[in-house]
Amino acid sequence: MGLDAGSRPIRGGPQGNSRYSLRPPQRDRERGLPGAAPGCRELVEAFDVVLCRTGRTIHVAQDESVLEALLAAGVRVDSMCHNGLCGTCQTRVLSGDIDHRDSFLSDEERAAGRFMMPCVSRAVGGADIVLDL
Ligand code: FES
């Protein structure tokens, strides 16, 4: 099976290897972000975020963003747009694979995996992530 022009690499497959998505580009545009209207979001997995400075573990449900979970737990994170556009909520990632859904980081920054936008980005495959919070 060959790859068509709409295929693109996705980081962090089950074994941490790159793989290719065969979904057409418009499918990405339909993928809902936290806060999107019901019916517009793709099924996403819940996961835990470990805060290295306090050792706290915060659960992120399927229907909430990392930022929403952090704020609900009383963790202060500056934010503004809540749509992955402004970079205000940028948070250092200490470990874990991130499904970057923002429009702020460059491709190189996403590949490095050192920062994430918790208002829209999530953990890959429901695995835990550790943040510098
Ligand atoms: S609040 Fe703007 S990128 Fe997260």
Automatic annotation (TrEMBL):
Which is one GO molecular function term here?
A: 2 iron, 2 sulfur cluster binding
The record ties this protein, via CDD domains, to: fer2
Which InterPro entries does the entry mention?
2Fe-2S_ferredoxin-like_sf, 2Fe-2S_ferredoxin-type, 2Fe2S_fd_BS, Benzoxazolinone_Detox_Enz, Beta-grasp_dom_sf
Question: SUPFAM superfamilies in the record, alphabetically?
Answer: 2Fe-2S ferredoxin-like
Q: Which Gene3D superfamilies match?
A: 3.10.20.30
Residue ranges annotated for the 2Fe-2S ferredoxin-type domain, each copy included: 47-133
Q: Outline the segment boundaries, as ranges, of region: Disordered.
A: 1-36
Entry protein name: 2Fe-2S ferredoxin-type domain-containing protein
Species whose genome carries this gene:
Mycolicibacterium phocaicum
